Amino acid sequence: MSLVKEPVEPEQQTEVEPEQEPVAEPERRGTASLALGATAVAMLGCPFLPEELPPWIRFFPLYLVLPVAIMALVCGLPDLWAMRGDEAAARGRARIGVALGTVAILVPMAACLLMVQLLE
Question: Three-state SS for 62?
Answer without folding.
Answer: helix
